[in-house]
Each structure stands twice: as C-alpha cells, then as structure tokens.
C-alpha cells in the first residue's frame, strides 16, 4: 500500500525505476491566433509511430499506466494483456521487458508482472534533478543574447481567466509542454534529453497534481509570472519563481494516497 502524507514515506512503497529512462516524444501544437493551445491529450503522449509490434505494445501498455488502467502495485500476467494490446506473446514480452528496464514494471518469475509501486523518495530525487535543469534553462533564456521564441507559451498561459482551460488532462499536457519547451528553448540538447527522461518518469504523479481546480488556477498564475520574468531578463527572479513552483508541486506529490489514485482512475 502507499504510505500516507505524514512523516517519511517508508519502504513499503516500491521503487519507481532505476537507471536511464528516456521518455517518448510528444506533439505540442499552439494556436496563437486563438490565444489558446491545442495539445494532444496525455493518452497521446506515447511513441508517435511505433515501428514494430513490440513498439506498439510498449506504447499501449505504457499509456495504460499513465491512464491508471494499470495502477501502481497492480499485478497482471501476459495472458491478461494479450487481447487488450492485440499482439502475440513475443512482442508483448519484449515490450514488458523494456518497461521493466525503464522502471515502470517489475517482473516476478513464474508469478507475473507488477506495475512498479510509487517510491516517493525516488520521485523527490527526480524533482530535485528537474529543478536544477529547469532553473538553469530559465537563467539561460533570460540572459541569452539571442532570444528564444516563447510567444506560443505566452499565448497559452498569459490569458484572461475566462480563457483558461479547466480540464485536468488538458492542463496536465499543457503543463508538461510548458516545462519541456523551456528546457528545449535553452538550446542545450543533452540537458533536454535528460529532462525528457525524468519527465516521463514523473508523469503519473504529475497528472494527479491537476485533479484540484485550485492547482490549475495557481499553475496559470505561476507560469505567467515565470514567463514575465524571463521576458524582462530578470534571471534571478525567474529562477526563484520556477524553483518555488516546482517545490510546491513536489509537496503536492507527498499528499498522494491510494484513494487519490483510484479516484483518478474513475475520472479518467
């Protein structure tokens, strides 16, 4: 079971991966003319064009995890998934082994597979790494002589309250796109590659951050302030605002309980 939100999260919560996990790329399409953003929902944040049956199975099972069809801690057999993903056992097994290497699954010989339970200590470490990368990117964007084109982000986030989106899935995708684009716009490809991997690994808990309306409103306000600081070339202020923004998300993660996860599954 998941540890509660008080005190240290103990070892009964499993590890959410160990080792590299380079996440899939996803498509972001902004429509500046309408001052809104059209983003593919989280269910589409998978491999764009699976090149094999194993890739297809990998993308489908991974999305089942992100959609909470498979919950952290859930056990299943290959037979359980063959019909759902509509591939034979060999490519399915290859996909499951890949997900296990990336930390999303655990395998128990002769017993089957398990979705990796959430390990909040590992998630804390991923958020710390995320903070370092994104704050450095914000500093680079605010101080670089060549200005990155952040207008699509401005059009998506610096909007009147009546134009803000309220759907948790859409806002979750927008939020992920916002932070990814900040890092990509810095021009550091290796930093973007690492950031993409850790983004993939925290996507489950990140989505849960937007199940509360207050968090959606706060995210709009904070993203707008971060963008405004970058555009005004106030590097220290941009870093401070971004650090506080990520720290708050990190704190929200600590309030995740088994009840919250099941409620998310019912509402997907």
Name some characteristics of this structure:
two-stranded antiparallel ribbon, Four Helix Bundle (Hemerythrin (Met), subunit A), 11 helices, elongated, Arc Repressor Mutant, subunit A, 268 residues, 7% strand, single chain
Structure description:
There is one protein chain. With about 270 residues, the protein is mainly α. It has 2 domains: about 40-115, Winged helix-like DNA-binding domain superfamily/Winged helix DNA-binding domain (Arc Repressor Mutant, subunit A), CATH 1.10.10.10; about 120-265, Up-down Bundle (Four Helix Bundle (Hemerythrin (Met), subunit A)), CATH 1.20.120.530. The protein is built from 11 helices and 5 strands. The strands form 2 sheets. Strands 3-5-4 form a 3-stranded antiparallel sheet. A hairpin with a 3-residue loop joins strand 4 (about 105-110) and strand 5. Helix 4 (about 120-145) runs antiparallel to helix 10, helix 6 runs antiparallel to helix 7 and helix 6 (about 170-185) runs parallel beside helix 9. It is elongated and about 60 Å long. The protein starts with about 25 loop residues before the first strand and ends with a helix. About 35% of the residues are buried. Residues about 1-50 have low confidence and may be disordered.
Run of helices and strands: EEHEHHEEHHHHHHHH
Return the CATH class of the largest domain: Mainly Alpha
Shape: elongated
Uncertain runs with pLDDT below 50, 5 residues or more? 1-48
Q: What do we call the CATH homologous superfamily of the largest domain? A: GntR ligand-binding domain-like
The CATH architecture designation of the largest domain is: Up-down Bundle
CATH fold descriptor of the largest domain: Four Helix Bundle (Hemerythrin (Met), subunit A)
Q: How big is the Rg?
A: 19 Å
């Amino acid at each position: 079971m998941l540890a509660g939100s008080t005190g240290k999260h103990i070892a009964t919560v499993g590890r959410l991966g160990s080792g590299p996990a380079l996440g899939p790329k996803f498509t972001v399409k902004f429509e500046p003319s309408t001052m809104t953003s059209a983003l593919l929902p989280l269910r589409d944040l998978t491999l764009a064009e699976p090149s094999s049956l194993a890739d297809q199975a990998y993308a489908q099972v991974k999305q089942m995890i992100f959609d909470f069809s498979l919950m952290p801690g859930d056990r299943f057999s290959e037979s359980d998934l063959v019909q759902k993903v509509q591939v034979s056992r060999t490519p399915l097994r290859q996909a499951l082994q890949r997900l296990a290497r990336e930390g999303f699954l655990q395998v128990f010989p002769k017993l089957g597979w398990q979705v990796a339970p959430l390990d909040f200590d590992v998630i804390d470490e991923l958020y710390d790494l995320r903070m370092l990368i994104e704050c450095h990117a914000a500093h680079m964007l605010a101080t670089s002589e060549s200005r990155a084109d952040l207008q699509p982000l401005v059009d998506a986030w610096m909007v009147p309250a009546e134009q803000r989106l309220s759907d948790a899935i859409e806002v979750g995708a927008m939020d992920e796109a916002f932070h990814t684009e900040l890092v990509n716009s810095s021009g550091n490809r290796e930093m973007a590659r690492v950031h993409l991997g850790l983004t993939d690994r925290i996507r489950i808990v990140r989505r849960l951050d937007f199940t509360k309306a207050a968090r959606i409103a706060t995210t709009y306000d904070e993203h707008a302030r971060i963008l405004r600081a970058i555009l005004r070339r106030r590097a220290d202020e941009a870093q401070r605002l971004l650090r506080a923004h990520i720290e708050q998300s990190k704190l929200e993660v600590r309030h995740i309980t088994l009840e919250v996860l099941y409620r998310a599954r019912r509402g997907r």
